[in-house]
Design a protein that fits this description.
Blueprint (H helix, E strand, L loop, with lengths): L21 E9 L3 E10 L7 H7 L5 E11 L7 E9 L5 E4 L1 H6 L5 H18 L4
Antiparallel strand pairs: 1-2, 1-5, 2-3, 3-4
Length: 132
């Protein structure tokens, strides 16, 4: 081995490659200024009820990758911007939740959970627009 080359044998890779490494989850993400609708990819190895929180609490991860993202301005009206790939700094995330479509398809969640989240999102948007 020459100088400057990493020793891959001594450092096991944390990433699992292949299509089975992660699964897509449709999410709604609230930031102080925007609502992001898109897809994040979570580990198939994590417990189902902890996949998103494990992703956010990973000390080695500071950004959350979102694919097929729609960025909607929470204050004022503007046309949503569409991105095939977007990175959000984790410190800017106020709330993240599986989208209503994911919740309805997933038997582990109830429609009441989806409605509760929609209510919380409406309250956040009301506060952001100056209403109380």
């Amino acid at each position: 081995m020459t100088a400057g080359q990493p020793n891959h044998a001594a450092q096991p890779s944390k990433r699992i490659s292949g299509k089975d490494a992660a699964m897509p989850v449709e999410v709604v993400i609230l930031t102080p200024d925007h609502e992001v609708l898109g897809i994040i990819h979570v580990s198939r190895d994590a417990r189902e009820d902890r996949r998103i929180s494990d992703l956010l609490n990973d000390p080695d991860r500071r950004f959350l990758a979102v694919t097929d993202a729609r960025l909607i301005n929470r204050v004022g009206s503007s046309t949503p911007r569409v991105y095939s790939f977007l990175q959000l700094h984790i410190d800017n995330i106020i709330m993240i939740h599986p989208s209503t479509q994911t919740v309805v398809r997933n038997t582990d969640y109830s429609k009441e959970e989806a409605l509760r989240f929609d209510g919380l999102r409406a309250k956040f948007n009301q506060v952001a627009s100056g209403g109380v």
